[in-house]
Design brief:
The chain is an alpha/beta fold. It has helices at residues 2-11, 26-46, 53-57, 77-80, 134-139, 165-172, 195-200, 219-225, 261-273, 293-305, 392-412, 435-439, 459-464, 493-497, 509-519, 532-544, and strands at residues 15-16, 22-23, 124-126, 146-148, 151-153, 185-189, 206-211, 230-232, 247-253, 274-283, 309-314, 317-321, 425-428, 446-452, 468-472, 485-491, 520-530, 547-553, 563-569. The radius of gyration is 28 Å and the shape is globular.
Length: 579
């Protein structure tokens, strides 16, 4: 019969008896099981994988435990408690290693409701959305917040302004031009529940408020629930994740940052962030504070070394103005401050150690307060920083017009509720020049513009426009609490996870979308733009994390083949447990 004929019955797992019937022998059965096992093994080894995505798609991703309702992967005290206390290193970002973060859906707390809409949310939020009364108990007498029935109420006070932020702002406006359009972007350090930033919004001032996760618990979570721009952050051993010369003013109200410690490292960092001609406002210790005379003298000395002009000392509030021109260093000063080497890039700020030197910045006068356009004119004009890029001014104009058309398409054709009370907190995961944020500037929203750390550092241009944002790498969790954004936008999501040089994935689409789910509010919207193949993959992940999905063509006039995924996070809760 030949070799092939003699092997065929065994390959098919059969034997031929003299009666013409196919019969199974014991050895044949064993051989068949072996062959099946080999085939399955080879299929598992050689089938292309999509990171963790395929594992997730075998069924719906399971909820996390009820104890994880406020999961903060990179600010987890269970990890940070083992780290060094030097310069508050343990309170900075420390993320789990890849593969160690929980692969589950963060549930809302029992009793969670769709948040109170803006602007009503500035003054009250649902108690059950974050049922933590510690701040109300400890700070209620200072006007931070108090509980009334099913709400937390925010009278607008703070430790240094117990009579309310509005009265405090009026006091500051005697010395700082807060009502002229001259100032637009502010940084509030150690912000509490961010009432200062919240009440500045009516002056068309966009203040990014930050504080660490600390004993008060959830102060940033309260701020975001109120619809106020805020971010979890600690000034410790690293530069803050913002570009140089970006904030028109920096404010500290009893933030307790030791500005002169570590040879002035923190004051140097404030100087990196503050726009030339900008204002530094410090209220509380050590300004004319009892038993802190030495610290107050040192603060004045280092400000003088940096050539800051002291505008006023009003009670426990001191205000300085940074010079419009480039640094006045080198000079004789007791802190031995000097200029950094010429190869230092002041915009490098993602996991970048603090420096004890001053960077000499180009274009200082062109981007200074008073030189840059007032708000809202600055929103639509390319700044001097944009001109540093190849064909930067043209790219800026093209990007601006592109996003005007895209946002109009979102509203009229895709049913995205921009411009309504449904959407207040917005995140652009891949902001470039901030075109999306500029296009919705007249809507009752604020936008966190995220410039991926591995991409060109365009965040300075965004701040020149009068918008705000941060650097971030989307292969790590974001520094915010769960359920803090109404709309998350990802333009070219594949570029957030892939390496531009090799084209290989640095992390998994599933992990990025799971993080989007963590920070998206129930009934919130996610918009993802990418190639048809990438959108197909995103739809599979979206369905595994309980999102409803719709896929649309891109804008007809664009001529693009990319697709747009518009997804909604469903509102689900863990079942009630007895006892």
């Amino acid at each position: 019969m030949g070799l092939l004929s003699s092997l065929r019955p065994h390959r098919r797992g059969t034997a031929l008896s003299g009666g013409g019937q196919w019969q199974w022998s014991f050895l044949d059965a064993v051989w068949a099981v072996f062959l099946v096992a080999v085939v399955v093994f080879l299929a598992l080894v050689f089938t292309p994988r999509r990171g963790n995505t395929l594992a997730a798609l075998s069924g719906a991703v399971q909820p996390c435990a009820a104890s994880e309702v406020d999961l903060l992967p990179c600010e987890d005290p269970r990890r940070s408690s083992r780290l060094s206390r030097e310069m508050n290193y343990y309170r900075e970002r420390h993320c789990p290693a890849r593969g160690e973060a929980p692969k589950c859906l963060v549930p809302p707390p029992q009793g969670y409701r769709v948040p109170v809409p803006w602007p009503e949310s500035l003054h009250k939020i649902w108690h059950d959305n974050m049922p933590y009364g510690k701040i109300a108990e400890r700070k209620g007498h200072q006007g931070w917040m108090k509980q009334e029935g099913s709400y937390f109420i925010f009278p607008g006070g703070g430790t240094m302004f117990p009579d309310g932020a509005e009265q405090y702002i009026e006091k500051l406006a005697q010395y700082v031009p807060l009502k002229s359009g001259l100032l637009r972007t502010g940084l509030d350090m150690g912000c509490g529940v961010a009432s200062f930033g919240g009440f500045l919004l009516k002056e068309n001032i966009m203040t990014l408020s930050f504080a660490p996760r600390d004993s008060h618990k959830s102060q940033i979570q309260f701020a975001l629930e109120r619809g106020i721009p805020a971010f979890l952050l600690m000034l410790g051993t690293r530069r803050l994740p913002f570009p140089a010369q970006s904030f028109d003013f920096v404010h500290c109200s009893r933030c307790l940052i030791p500005f002169t410690a570590y040879n002035g490292s923190y004051m140097i960092e404030v100087g990196r962030l503050l726009r030339p001609g900008g204002y530094l406002i410090i209220s509380g210790p050590p300004v004319q504070w009892k038993k802190q005379e030495k610290e107050w003298a040192e603060l004045q000395a280092i400000a003088q070394s940096l050539c800051y002009k002291l505008i006023t000392v009003d009670g426990n509030t001191a205000i300085w103005k940074k010079p419009n021109k480039a640094s006045c260093l080198p000079n004789q000063n007791e802190f031995s401050l000097d200029l950094c080497s010429t190869d230092d890039d002041p915009d490098e700020a993602w996991y970048f150690k603090l420096k004890q030197c001053i960077t000499k910045v180009s274009l200082a006068e062109e981007i200074a307060v008073g030189s840059i356009d007032k708000w809202p004119d600055r929103l639509s004009k390319p700044s001097a920083r944009a001109s540093l890029m190849d064909d930067g001014a043209s790219l800026f104009e093209t990007d601006t017009q592109k996003w005007v058309k895209r946002v109009a398409y979102y509203k009229t054709s895709l049913g995205v509720k921009l411009g309504t009370a449904r959407i207040r907190n917005v995140m652009d995961m891949n902001a470039f020049f901030g075109g999306l944020a500029a296009a919705v500037a007249s809507d009752p929203v604020w936008v966190m513009n995220v410039v991926p750390a591995q991409k060109p550092l365009t965040l300075g241009v965004i701040y020149d426009r009068g918008l705000i944002g941060v650097y971030h790498d989307w292969c790590e969790p974001f520094s915010t609490y769960p359920r803090t954004y109404d709309l998350i936008h990802a333009d070219g999501i594949n570029s957030l996870i892939s390496d531009a040089m090799s084209g290989k994935n640095r992390c998994d689409l599933f992990d990025v979308m799971l993080e989007m789910d963590r920070i998206l509010r129930p009934e919130g919207t996610a918009i993802i733009r990418d190639s048809p193949d990438m959108i197909d993959k995103a739809v599979q992940v979206a369905q595994s994390i309980r999102w409803t999905t719709q896929v649309h063509d891109s804008e007809p006039e664009s001529g693009s083949t990319e697709k747009i995924l518009v997804a909604t996070k469903t509102f689900w809760k863990l079942p009630l447990t007895s006892g």
